[in-house]
Amino acid sequence: MTAPFHIEGHDRASRWLITCDHASNRVPDCVNGGVLGLPDEDMNRHIAYDIGAAGLSRALAREMGAPVILSDFSRLVIDPNRGEHDPTVLMKLYDGSIIPANRGADAAEQERRLAAFHRPYHDALAGLAARRGDTVVCAVHSFTPQFKGREMRPWHVGVLYAEDDRLAAPLLDRLRAEADIYVGDNEPYSGHLPGDSMDRHGTVPGRPHVLIELRNDLIATPEQQEHWGQRLAPILDGALTDAGC
User: Fold this and answer.
1) What is the mean pLDDT of residues 130-148?
2) Which residues are 18's β-sheet partners?
């Protein structure tokens, strides 16, 4: 079986590390023969992966001279942005869609997927983060403009964080200074999720870190991803300078 992640720019010198937990909608063959029982329509929307996040992560990493790690399995296989004991680490229902191959997944199947995908991804991420003592982690995600039956989300960019806002606070200030960007402060989600990827690789080891969410209609094409990568890189660098850490 191939590695459940990709690393690009391993030798890049920046202290930044870019991560993309939900880069892919791939279902490996060892999981129900490579299908979850969902129609292509569902596998190509936000429930299966973060649309545009992989391309944005690569563009941002290139601009910043930083390594990037990207998952290579759908979050519906097992969610690498959840702690191992989080009840949503293996989703059986998401935004109105039942995931047939997950409905009957028992504790043994969950453990098998954790061992095959979740843990190797986090081991590799931890190794990258430890390559230097002053690593700063930026996680890249995207969010859907609207969940079924809910109001449209107005934000262009969301900045997520928990109790450590050393980097998030100056990043929010710099993004708010951009007249054409509507910024969400811990929107559209809360950044406090114990055991999640940023908790594990940022909060617990004490590294400066932040999670950014782009609305996925803004990064749907390679050109949009490059645009936002080029735009966000200096804003992030400036926020890190402001943070003084």
Assistant:
1) 92
2) 68, 138
Other Cβ atoms within 10 Å of 178 Cβ, number: 13
Which residue type occupies 13? A
CA-CA distances (angstroms) from residue 71 to 18, 33, 106, 192, 238?
12, 19, 23, 21, 28
CB count, 10 Å around CB of 111?
A: 12
Please tell me the total count of domains within the chain: 1
Mean pLDDT of 180-202: 91
- 8 Å CB contact between 53 and 3: no
CA-based nearest residue to 152, from 221, 212, 215, 94:
215
**Residue in 91, 239, 84 with CA at minimum distance from that of residue 165:** 239
Q: What is the CATH number of the domain that holds 54?
A: 3.40.630.40
DSSP three-state, residue 153: coil
Residue-range definition of the domain harbouring residue 160: 5-243
**Confidence (pLDDT) at 94:** 86
